[in-house]
Amino acid sequence: MIPKQDAAEWLRAYGQAWIDGDPTAVAALFGSAAAYHETPFDPPLKGTAAIRSYWQAGAAEAQADVTFESEIWSLSGSVVIAGWRAAFTRIPSGARVDLDGVFRLVLKEDNGTVLCTELREWWHRKEHPRLQPFHETA
C-alpha cells in the first residue's frame, strides 16, 4: 500500500520534471520495466530508456513555459487515480496549449523510493495560436 503523501510527492516530482524539461528526472520516477501508456490506441512505451526518449522529443525539445497541477482522486493499495492540468508554449510555433487529463498510476516502493510501474493517461488538448504582432506602417 502506498501512503497518500507518497503518491502526492510522486505527482509533484513528475510535474516538476515536466516544468524543468528534464526527461532524465521523469524517467527516474519509473521502474526499469515500467509501461507508459500515452494513448490507449498504441502499444505502451516500455522501460525507462523509452520513457526518457519520449520526454526528450515530446517535451524537453518542444515545450516552454510549462505549468502543471494535479489532484489525487482515489488511492487504493498501489493504484492512484489523479486528475491533472498542464499548459505550455509550443516550440517553435509559439502556440499556447492547455491540457486536462487523468492518470491511472500503479506505484511501488523500491528501497524507500516510490516508482511507477504503469502509467495510463487520457487527456484533452486546447490550442491557442500565437498572436501575430501589429505591423507598424510608416
UniProtKB/TrEMBL annotation:
Span of domain SnoaL-like: 12-109
A Pfam short name: SnoaL_2
Protein name: SnoaL-like domain-containing protein
Gene source species: Roseibium aquae
